[in-house]
Amino acid sequence: MHAVSVAIVAMLLAGACAPAAKPAPSGGPQAIDARADDALPPPVAKGKRAPPQPGEQVSPVIAFRGHAEHWSIHIESAGGYAHDVDFTWGAGSEHATGRLQYQPQPGAVAGAPILLAGTLDGGAGGRAMRVEITPAGCTDDGDEVFTHTVRVVVDGMAPMSGCGDLAK
Fold this sequence. Notes:
mainly beta, eight-stranded antiparallel β-barrel, 2 domains, 2 helices, single chain
């Protein structure tokens, strides 16, 4: 009986000294190697972009919202130089989404416009779009103060100017 007790105590101690096992994912039991998990990048919440990797070139625009009386624009980084754009105009009667790319300007100085160019998708096909975001105080028609001015040029439309803020 004493030998059986010693064996049970030895098994309990061996289990207590071993590293704790990670719970299996809800998809069912499977072996998980803790060292393999450590090599994976941290999960990114939906709607958030992953942190830049070393050496990756990224746009200075994480997110931007701008507007004027009859239009509004929302730009959000999709990682690297890519951005998703959501544009509403015609006092809200027209809406389209698209993709923009940050256009780095060699030798740009502080206060120079941030340039994004790409395509706005719509019912009649894609239209070229260019957005210039300039760090300069701006007050809209409702006397609200913003940190940036924005100029939006869409192929086939008159240029539009307004105010907005970059996400920090």
